[in-house]
Amino acid sequence: MQNAVFNISERTEKGKKVRMEGSIPAIMYGQSLGEPIPCQITKRELIDLLGSKSSVLSLKLNDKIENCVLKEVQRDAFGNIVHLDFQYVKKGDTIKLRVPIRFSGAESLDARKLLLDDVITEVQLQGNPSEMPEHIEVDVAGLEHGAQILAKDLVIPETLKSDLEPDTVVARIGSLKTSSIEVEDDNNDEETAE
Question: What kind of fold does domain 96-187 have according to CATH?
Answer without folding.
Answer: RNA Polymerase Alpha Subunit; Chain A, domain 2 (2.170.120)
